[in-house]
Amino acid sequence: MSAKSAEIFFKSESRYRTLVENSCDIIFSLDTEGNFTFVSHAWKTVLGHDRGDAVGHNFRKFIHPEDIPRYETSIMTALQTNSAQEVTYRIHHADGSWRWHTSRGTPHVDENGVLTVIGMAYDVTERLRIEEIMTQTEKMIMISGMAAGMAHEINNPLGAILQHAQNIERRVSTGIPANLKAAAEVGVDLDLVRAYLQKRGIFDFIGHIRTAGMRASVIISNMLYFSRRSESGAEYIDLSALLDRVLELAGTDYHLKKKYDFRRIDLQRDYAADLPLVPLVVAELEQVLLNIIHNAAQAMAGAAMRREPRITLRTRLSEGMVLIEIEDNGPGMDEATRLRIFEPFFSTKEVGVSTGLGLSVAYAIVTKGHRGAIEVQSRPGEGSCFTVKLPLQGKA
Ligand SMILES: Nc1ncnc2c1ncn2[C@@H]1O[C@H](COP(=O)(O)OP(=O)(O)OP(=O)(O)O)[C@@H](O)[C@H]1O
Ligand SMILES: [Mg+2]
């Protein structure tokens, strides 16, 4: 549109008004104090708040407290530099949620000489979510590729270490005729050799080599999940029954490890009644869910809980996928932690006790093994909610 035609177009007040009022984006103006002087019809349709709640009120009433400084800066900069400024922030919706919006505001002096910032705002929550998934996916492909490569490389030498430790034990055993024969040939008494090895703690050293080697080998076999191609051995499974079994397993396991009493946790089940059978590899999905539940239990045990610890398991159908939600009311996590939890070896727990592989293996099993998705929502102090999404069309 040329400047002339734009002038003609906007000369019509009603045309201008129609355009503003029918825009799907929120159009607004703020005075220099940050009070709304106008919001378009979309304010109501997008946010659910009445327009009257906005006009005459300050933007701070609607913007997330953490984002207010950023919003303020953008208005100040727009006014000071007389230029358009963009800012992304969370805004309160009438349903109680906070959603991400981006707005672009420009200073404007009206016919009465009053300075305002006029702008447009639109919901970018979904776009940000998709961007995060893409970044997360790319990062995981890179890191898990490296981890799988390392696992393959370490697997052979580790196998040799374990095998040779076992050979040493066998070669000094008195129960093998070849050992007795070789000892006789060199003129030593095998019982005395054993007594010496025992006295100097050499059998213990070999035992330690084997225990450490076995621990490494569990880590390596977990890392090998990263290079798994796709599901094999999937069966059509009743998910509700599987979830019940996992909860039972989680309880027994915890009781055995005596970390704390799993029975203290209030377990809520909210399963969809109409779920079809879901194609999945039982042992693998059990591992995924157990790890998520253990993490929740550990997080709640480690935090000073002001409320009764609770884990809620939910299932539902959405867009051809079955969704399993595991929600806890534990300490939650900050943004920096949340963005890293699926990385192999990322852990905030005690070194040597946790490897930080749990969720990265879960990620590999769900995304590669089952062509599904796994996501987490969490905020400090507000608990965490993991969602495992599995496709209903599998290769069982
Ligand atoms: N429900 C949760 N609440 C709070 N933080 C969590 C929760 N689940 C996971 N985390 C965080 O994610 C990190 C990574 O979890 P992951 O299961 O991969 O490793 P880990 O539990 O630390 O170690 P491992 O599973 O090998 O024992 C945890 O160390 C913890 O900081
Ligand atoms: Mg874990």
Structural features:
five-stranded mixed beta sheet, alpha+beta, 13 helices, binds adenosine-5'-triphosphate, binds magnesium ion, Heat Shock Protein 90, Beta-Lactamase
Please provide a brief summary of the model.
The chain is α+β, with helices and mostly antiparallel strands.
Structure description:
It is built from 13 helices and twelve strands. It has three domains: 3-123, 2-Layer Sandwich (Beta-Lactamase), CATH 3.30.450.20; 129-227; 235-391, Histidine kinase-like ATPase, C-terminal domain (Heat Shock Protein 90, 2-Layer Sandwich), CATH 3.30.565. Helices cover 47% and strands 20% of the residues. Helix 6 packs antiparallel against helix 9 (202-223). With 396 residues, it is an alpha+beta fold. The strands form three sheets. A five-stranded antiparallel β-sheet has the order 2-1-5-4-3, sandwiched between helices. It has a five-stranded mixed β-sheet with strand order 7-9-10-12-11. Strands 6-8 form a two-stranded antiparallel sheet. The site of magnesium ion has 4 residues, from helix 11.
